[in-house]
Amino acid sequence: MNSSPIIRKNKRRPMAEINVVPYIDVMLVLLVIFMITAPLITAGVKVDLPEAAAEPIPADQEPPLIASIDASGNYYLSVGDSADQALEAHQLVELVIAHRKVNPNTQIMINGDKTVAYDKVVQLMVLLQTEAGIESIGLMTDPE
Questions:
Q1: What is the pTM of this model?
Q2: Please, are residues 87 and 75 in contact by the beta-carbon 8 Å criterion?
Q3: Residue 95: inside a domain
Q4: Cβ-proximal residues to 75 (8 Å cutoff; 6+ apart), any chain
């Protein structure tokens, strides 16, 4: 019998691993932040919309152009951003035409305060149809 000790060479190869736990933590924190802030972001001007039973716009669609009319009859235009500068009717039409040249399939929505005279909403619709060539215009409402 051979009583000499067996010598083993410790051949450790370096392991290449990525610890993903910290990345998951960061992702969950970002998810919570976006879930909290998303409902706080509103598009357009603050108006008191009429209530009606209607289907919401699908989330996978491109955001529409929102032409707003506030309670005092001022016009605003927003494209996802908040619009806080009142426009004249011809300025709003020019902006819609310019945006439609870049994105011809963008939907146009009218966001009219429920206290605004129906006449103002119809005038805006006619302007957008005749001068900007918009064929389809949607009206925004609050759910019942």
A1: 0.56
A2: yes
A3: yes
A4: 67, 68, 69, 86, 87, 88, 89, 91, 92, 124
What CATH number does the domain containing 129 carry?
3.30.420.270
Helix ranges restricted to H, 38-117: 89-102
Q: 99 is in which domain, residue-wise?
A: 65-139
- Is 82 inside a domain boundary? yes
For residues 65 and 104, what is the distance between their CA atoms, to the nearest angstrom?
11
- The Cα angle at residue 81 between residues 77 and 84, in degrees rounded to 5: 55
Write b or e for each residue in 19-58: b if 16 or more Cβ atoms lie within 10 A of its Cβ, otherwise e: eeeeeeeeeeeeeeeeeeeeeeeebbbebeeeeeeeeeee
Domain contains 134: yes
Is 42 contained in some domain? no
Q: What is the pLDDT of residues 60-109, one digit of tens each?
A: 677 788 888 888 888 888 865 556 678 888 888 888 888 888 888 888 88
